[in-house]
């Protein structure tokens, strides 16, 4: 799946190589971070237990000129782990801050997470996405689309509403982030040094073709 | 001294004797309706509770209970001289150790852990069902312990929620042991709530509810308030409540055990007829499971800063882990025996698994553990670390419970801080947890590192282990491994046994293990299994009784005959069909011991393998970088988010 020709600026990577993208997922407990991560990595949905510490999963995304290997750090939302989350989000290229559209409190919490990230991330370096999850529950929605949108706009963030359960907008979200990460590193050539070359590109367990690995031609 | 320590496997040595009449399942009528509060008059400071200023005593609450329960009927319980309760963290490596143990907690010298001396010579007891022989040992005089007989029935403290006690508490009412059912929504005023065999509550010193095994802690806050009132009333007199007994002619006997650990108070309300000592050690497991998630240092710090902090904020989502622990404690004898159960494996297979783990190392890796079916396959340990402090079975039990209680570990690779409370209650290790056989998820790999940044290096070890397992086809071999049946021993009438050796080679640093066959007919139903475990618990309480420990007990119960025997080499519990005679039972045990000897390479991890991941041991193990992460990040963002 990595046979796609790579962009000229990165030809040195060779055919079987990919660039590593560290992406962290943050948000209150129960908003669906692990469910989103499972969608990203295996395109599945199943009921999950609260995460302990942090779960690490990977997924390869092929853009038209480059292959990105997402290393997803799915953090635990439980408060007892807050003291250790910096360990996981440090040095991330992308961060998703997730809330549950049916729980206002999780939206408030998301804003606290964004503030926390602002303290640690240099603006323009990290792609930050705000994600309203559980759109399959419109009847009990507590946070409107507009609210999420305007918060994201005010901070210049990627915004998306998703349903990890139905899969709605989840691959779009990952692709969107992938493009932006790619864009940002292209813009700043120096950044490339920080990208270490992965030895092998491998789908995290699973032989099943994944929608995202089918080297989709969508490009900016 | 270490030798001796092995003989006393209770994580906490309790000096108060349990009333003997209370722990005999066959002897229910001997206890009159009375409640006794047993006090331990060591100062809280000596117990490491750190309560310089005990909360004001709430006399009103106490008087209220007194008046609802009528006059007391004092019935002194036997009580040997109390001694200061040892700290729950025994073997702290001290400031020198690999862990840079914080020394703010006063540590009690290891010498004090050995508890009361064993009586000389073997004590043998024939324990027939009819003779209430238990009452024999009640002549102990009270020395410097104060005994405080209060007008409080144990049920009194529960009674603020509903009416009188249930009249009949049959075995059938024991809780279902389905894996971690949620009891959070239970109606705490309902009769069914009251009938649970064992309640466990955790509250803060300020009386704030933290955890209740059944029902929502919030709904129980008044009950917890009463408990706290009792605790603080007694504390104000430099005493600490240890336990309350109540009962009405055997129909509704409850034992209430209180335990204070730092700023937390743990309470067990049980009609399981277990000894106080056993209930206490179970509460200690609960406390340690909480510590494993938060560390003792941070719990203490939080409450130092804010006495009425609501700890549920930090435990949110972890109730399931505590529920799961209590279900395991009730159903898995590992906890009773404080020993680890290994899955029987051909020693060649176990050795090759160990070698695979031994080869996949990285700096600061300290333990590599393989688990299947909630049992240990093998464990490889870092040399220098294990020289400083051994891995206690209790720490492993807490880890196994954590992994078993949650499906979270089936999602990818987990990297999480985790504290091993007996190893060091104040520090975190970082645990890499991943199943080796997705999506089945039966064989779990656990790699513990002292370096929180080591994820990629440790994950790399996992790839090597995967590779090694694949080339040796080890997963398939593990899948075939299974426990054994008592009939394989070839001794008629032998139904079941539990054998815990003390003489494992290598040395005392070896992990304490035990072996036991599957529970088979007639112990195949949940109910019967519980009944057998209750019998074992009873035997265990007699063997480990502080006032009158026994070496050998032959107990003829209604539907089976049990024989328990402890020597300097092993502790053994056996269960026979009721037809067995004493002579044939002893003969059977000889055969059993011979069989175990023959099979021991398969039943136990015989030569616990080691590796060295600290190239410069003097540096990394002794207070250098190698120590687990002191929770130095607590202040940074811990509570800043709200
Ligand atoms: N209806 C609906 N339920 C969802 C969706 N995503 C997740 N859930 C459910 O929400 C619950 C929590 O989901 P998780 O993915 O475990 O939440 P989390 O954010 O990872 O939680 P922590 O690991 O504790 O931080 C589970 O019961 C999921 O099944 C969604 O899009 N729609
Ligand atoms: Mg999660």
From TrEMBL, chain A:
Q: Tell me if GTP-binding is a UniProt keyword of this record.
A: yes
Database matches in InterPro entries: P-loop_NTPase, Rab_GTPases_membrane_traffic, Small_GTP-bd, Small_GTPase
Please provide the record's keywords in A-Z order.
GTP-binding, Nucleotide-binding
Q: Name one GO molecular function term.
A: GTP binding
SUPFAM superfamilies per the record? P-loop containing nucleoside triphosphate hydrolases (SSF52540)
Q: Which SMART domains match?
A: RAB, RAN, RAS, RHO
Q: Which Pfam families match?
A: Ras
Xref: PROSITE patterns: RAB, RAS, RHO
Q: Which family does it belong to?
A: Belongs to the small GTPase superfamily. Rab family.
Q: What is this protein called?
A: Ras-related protein Rab-17
- Source organism (scientific name): Aldrovandia affinis
What phylogenetic lineage does the species belong to? Eukaryota, Metazoa, Chordata, Craniata, Vertebrata
TrEMBL record, chain B:
**All copies of domain FUZ/MON1/HPS1 third Longin, residue ranges:** 494-600
Domain (FUZ/MON1/HPS1 first Longin) ranges: 198-325
Spell out the Basic and acidic residues composition-biased ranges: 1-12
Q: Where is this region: Disordered?
A: 1-145, 157-191, 606-642
Q: Which organism is it from?
A: Aldrovandia affinis
Biological role: Plays an important role in membrane trafficking through the secretory apparatus.
What GO terms fall under cellular component here?
A: Mon1-Ccz1 complex
What range(s) does the FUZ/MON1/HPS1 second Longin domain occupy?
364-465
Q: Give start-end positions of Low complexity composition bias.
A: 111-122, 165-181
Q: Name one Pfam family in it.
A: Fuz_longin_1
Q: Name one GO biological process term.
A: protein targeting to vacuole
Task: Return the similarity comment.
Answer: Belongs to the MON1/SAND family.
Q: By what name is this protein known?
A: Vacuolar fusion protein MON1 homolog
The signal peptide stretch is none
The lineage's top-level taxon is: Eukaryota
The residue ranges flagged as biased composition, category Polar residues, are 130-140
Alphabetical list of PANTHER family matching this protein: SAND PROTEIN-RELATED (PTHR13027), VACUOLAR FUSION PROTEIN MON1 HOMOLOG B (PTHR13027:SF13)
């Amino acid at each position: 799946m990595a046979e796609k020709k790579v962009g000229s600026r990165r030809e040195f990577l060779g055919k079987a190589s990919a660039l590593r993208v560290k992406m962290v997922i943050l948000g209150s407990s129960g908003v669906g971070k692990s469910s989103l991560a499972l969608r990203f990595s295996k395109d599945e949905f199943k009921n999950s237990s609260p995460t302990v510490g942090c779960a690490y999963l990977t997924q390869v995304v092929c853009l038209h000129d480059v292959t990105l290997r997402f290393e997803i750090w799915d953090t635990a939302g439980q408060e007892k782990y807050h003291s250790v989350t910096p360990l996981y989000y440090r040095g991330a290229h992308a961060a998703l801050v997730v809330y549950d559209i049916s729980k206002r409190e999780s939206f408030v919490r998301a804003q606290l997470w964004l503030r926390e990230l602002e303290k640690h991330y240099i603006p323009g370096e990290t792609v930050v996405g705000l994600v309203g999850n559980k759109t399959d529950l419109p009847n009990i929605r507590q946070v409107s689309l507009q609210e999420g949108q305007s918060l994201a706009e005010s901070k210049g963030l990627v915004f998306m509403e998703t349903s990890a359960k139905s899969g709605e907008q989840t691959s779009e979200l990952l692709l969107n982030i992938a493009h932006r990460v790619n864009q940002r590193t292209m813009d700043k050539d120096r950044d490339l040094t920080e990208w270490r070359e992965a030895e092998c590109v491998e789908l995290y367990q699973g032989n099943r073709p994944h929608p995202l690995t089918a080297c989709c031609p969508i490009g900016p | 001294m270490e030798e001796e320590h092995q003989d006393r496997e209770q994580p906490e040595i309790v000096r108060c004797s349990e009333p003997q009449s209370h722990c005999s399942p066959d002897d229910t009528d001997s206890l009159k309706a009375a409640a006794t509060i047993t006090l331990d008059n060591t100062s809280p400071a000596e117990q490491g509770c750190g309560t310089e200023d005990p909360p004001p005593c709430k006399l009103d609450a106490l008087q209220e209970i007194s008046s609802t329960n009528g006059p007391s009927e004092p019935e002194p319980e036997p009580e040997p001289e109390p001694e200061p309760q040892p700290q729950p963290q025994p073997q702290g490596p001290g400031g020198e150790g690999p862990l840079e143990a914080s020394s703010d907690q006063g540590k009690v010298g290891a010498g004090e852990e050995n508890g009361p001396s064993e009586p000389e010579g073997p004590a043998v007891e024939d324990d027939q069902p009819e003779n209430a022989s238990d009452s024999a040992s009640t002549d102990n005089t009270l020395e410097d312990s104060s005994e405080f007989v209060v007008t409080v029935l144990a049920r009194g403290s529960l009674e603020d929620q509903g009416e009188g006690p249930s009249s009949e508490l049959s075995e059938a009412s024991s809780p279902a042991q389905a894996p971690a059912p949620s009891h959070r929504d239970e109606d705490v005023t309902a009769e069914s709530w009251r009938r649970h065999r064992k309640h466990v509550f955790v509250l803060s010193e300020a009386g704030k509810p933290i955890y209740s095994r059944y029902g929502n802690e919030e709904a129980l806050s008044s009950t917890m308030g009463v408990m706290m009132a009792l605790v603080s009333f007694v504390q104000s007199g430099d005493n600490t409540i240890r336990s309350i007994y109540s009962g009405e002619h055997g129909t509704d006997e409850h034992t209430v055990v209180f335990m204070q650990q730092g700023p937390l108070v743990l309470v067990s309300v049980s009609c399981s007829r277990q000894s106080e000592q056993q209930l206490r050690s179970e509460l200690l497991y609960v406390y340690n499971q909480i510590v494993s998630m938060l560390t003792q240092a941070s719990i203490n710090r939080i409450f130092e800063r804010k006495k009425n902090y609501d700890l549920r904020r930090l435990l949110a989502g972890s109730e399931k882990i505590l529920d799961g622990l209590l279900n395991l404690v009730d159903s898995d004898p590992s906890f009773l025996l404080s020993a680890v159960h290994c899955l029987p494996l051909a020693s060649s297979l176990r050795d090759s698994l160990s070698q695979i783990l031994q080869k996949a190392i990285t700096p600061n890796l300290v333990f590599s553990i393989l688990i299947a079916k909630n049992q240990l396959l093998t464990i490889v340990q870092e040399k220098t670390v294990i020289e400083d402090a051994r891995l206690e079975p209790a720490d492993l039990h807490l880890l196994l419970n954590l992994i078993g209680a949650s499906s979270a570990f089936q999602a990818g690779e987990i990297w999480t801080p985790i504290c091993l409370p007996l190893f060091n209650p104040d520090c975190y290790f970082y645990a890499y947890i991943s199943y080796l056989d997705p999506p089945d998820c039966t064989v779990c790999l656990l790699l513990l590192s002292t370096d929180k940044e080591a994820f990629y290096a440790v994950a790399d070890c996992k790839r090597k282990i995967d590779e090694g397992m694949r080339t040796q086809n080890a997963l398939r071999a593990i899948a075939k491994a299974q426990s054994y049946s008592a009939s394989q021993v070839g001794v008629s009438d032998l139904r079941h046994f539990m054998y815990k050796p003390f003489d494992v080679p290598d040395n005392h640093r070896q992990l304490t293990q035990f072996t036991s066959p599957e529970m088979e007919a007639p112990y195949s139903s949940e109910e019967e299994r519980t009944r057998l475990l209750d019998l074992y618990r009873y035997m265990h309480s007699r063997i480990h009784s502080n006032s009158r420990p026994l070496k050998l007990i032959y107990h003829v119960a209604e539907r089976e005959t049990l024989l328990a025997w402890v020597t300097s080499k092993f502790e053994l519990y056996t269960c026979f069909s009721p037809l067995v005679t004493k002579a044939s039972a002893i003969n059977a045990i000889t055969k059993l011991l011979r069989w175990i000897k023959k099979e021991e390479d398969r039943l136990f991890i015989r030569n616990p393998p080691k590796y060295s991941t600290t190239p410069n041991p003097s540096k990394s193990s002794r207070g250098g970088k190698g120590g687990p992460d002191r929770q130095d990040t607590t202040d940074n963002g811990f509570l800043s988010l709200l």
